[in-house]
Amino acid sequence: MYHCGCNYISDLRKYVELYDVFASLAPQPLAVCTGREDRIFPIKGGEVAIPIIRKAYEESAKPDNLLIDIGPKGHRVYGDKIYPFIVNRLQDVL
Questions:
Q1: Is 80 exceeded by the pLDDT of residue 6?
Q2: 5 backbone dihedrals φ, ψ, rounded to 5°
Q3: Residue 7: what pLDDT?
Q4: Integer angstrom CA distances of residue 83 from 22, 61, 87
């Protein structure tokens, strides 16, 4: 699917899946937001990726550094969980 350049790294998919990239960030804080009706990043892919990412964070001994928020609608940020998570993690480093 065509999308903007913010989600494109040339030839990356030849070597890794996006969940590999996210899992490699553990134990650094990571907030992932998706929607059940997202047509750009369908939830089917999330259902494959989320357990892999969660496992990486559990194995890093920092499972609280991961937030996965699945909203009811389409492609957007559901801020009620994401924004507090980000603010709390920023306070930890400031």
A1: no
A2: -65, -15
A3: 62
A4: 19, 23, 6
Ramachandran area for residue 11 (φ above 0: left; ψ -120 to 50: alpha; else beta) = left
Phi, psi of 73 (to 5 degrees): -115, -140
Query: Please, which residues bridge with residue 68 across strands?
Result: 32
Quick one: tokens of 54? Answer: 């969660």
Measured CA to CA, the distance from residue 20 to residue 29 in angstroms comes to 15
Residues in the chain: 94
pLDDT for the residue numbered 69: 95
Contact 74, 38 (CB under 8 A): yes
The structure tokens 């913010």 sit at 6
Q: Please report where in the chains the tokens 């998706």 appear, as a residue.
A: 34
